[in-house]
Amino acid sequence: MPKPPKIPESVLVVIHTPELDVLLIERADRPALWQSVTGARNYVDEPFAETAAREVGEETGIVVGSRDVPREALIDWHHHIQFEIFAEWRHRYAEGVTVNTEHWFSLQVPRRLEVTLAPREHTAHIWLPYQDAAQQCFSWSNRDAILQLPERVRALNTGRGA
After folding, report:
1. Are 80 and 99 in contact (CB under 8 A)?
2. CATH domain 9-157 topology
3. Which of 82, 92, 128, 160 has the highest CB neighbour number within 10 Å of its CB?
4. The Nudix hydrolase domain covers which part of the protein (predicted)?
5. 30 — pLDDT class (breaks 50, 70, 90)
6. Residue 128: what are its φ and ψ, rounded to 5°?
7. Which residues are bridge partners to 22 per DSSP?
8. Could you give the 3-state DSSP secondary structure of residue 10?
């Protein structure tokens, strides 16, 4: 039975420590392409926070809602962007779909946690200071999200939201 087409609505989750070290993972299908956790909704009305928590668990083994990573650590930035889907990945979507809407989240973890990668999706991980992490990302949207991290964390800490 063939896989159903991917839903062109996804999440980007910037995982970081209080010191703003950011976790990047390397794509298995594209070596040297580093990114934060990303993933599409499994079904049309799946809440984006659920998508984000699920993808974090699947791609890194970090469990949102655990003792070390409480559910409140996952922050919805209430921000989304649209981008053109790379031609080589369009076959995963319904015919004619060329644009994806990406919703941004952050997840603060207490320290550089050990991760368990999904081997079919990712081959390596690295923790870097946020500026260095942004430079390593192949995706402009991922780079922009990481560069916004200090202001988003500052706003959250002063009660102004993400």
Report:
1. no
2. Nucleoside Triphosphate Pyrophosphohydrolase (3.90.79)
3. 128
4. 5-150
5. confident
6. -135, 150
7. 16, 128
8. strand
8 A C-beta contact, residue 117 and residue 9: no
Task: Write the pLDDT tens digit of every residue in 95-142.
Answer: 999 999 999 999 999 999 999 999 899 999 999 999 999 999 999 999
- Residue 154's nearest CA partner among 130, 134, 138 is 130
Residues 73, 51: Cα–Cα separation, whole Å: 15
Whole-angstrom distance, CA of residue 117 vs CA of residue 102: 22
Vertex 80 angle, CA 53 and 67, to 5°: 20
The predicted model scores a pTM of: 0.94
List of long-range contacts for 60-64, beta carbons under 8 Å, 24+ apart: 60/15, 60/23, 60/25, 60/115, 60/116, 60/117, 60/125, 61/115, 61/116, 61/117, 62/15, 62/107, 62/109, 62/113, 62/115, 64/107
Tokens of 118: 């999904």
